[in-house]
Amino acid sequence: MAKKETKAELRARVDQVLAALDREYGTEYICYLNHETPWQLLIAVILSAQCTDARVNMVTADLFKKYDSVEKFAKADANELEKDIHSLGFFRMKAKNIISCCQDLMERFGGEVPKTIEELTSLAGVGRKTANVILGNIYNEPSIVVDTHVKRISKKLGFAKSEDPEKIEYELMKILPRDHWILWNIQIITLGRSICFARRPKCGECFLKDLCPSAQKTIS
After folding, report:
1. Are residues 108 and 163 in the same domain?
2. Residue 147 known to be catalytic
């Protein structure tokens, strides 16, 4: 039976993992969803549910020209908006949430995207993941976004145990330094898209293989 990792050993391994990620991917803040304004990013994240960022970017290129303000989205015809985003899947619910969200932005926040997680999550279609994307990318507020990559790889590394994204967020907040909260999502997405695939992770090629319990089991 493998010896249980002490808190000091975990802390040291976290630091090693972060240093390796910084070396491999750098520390620049990158957002994979194209946007020019906070409200555009908010809508893009709502659209990204169960969909790739690349596909969302293809749709928003024209969408943000047609609806070039929060007010236009708030007044949009639901059926027409559904047609505009049809290729992204779950288009009926997304269209409904976007219109409702933008109506809230106009009525409650003067057309501006709010700056607190409580206010953001009070908007239609906005959960903690979406709110944290906004806080990190728009307001530079330390936040941890738990998407499918972060959930899966954080568990592989032994940094999280829960299945619930919100609980994983709090688990990671306890062990990751605040200056890496935003970076964690950016770097882990890159790792998940290039090496640590869900079905066939390339553990033997991974620069974290000596620091990852899951990789050690796979390689051995």
Report:
1. no
2. yes
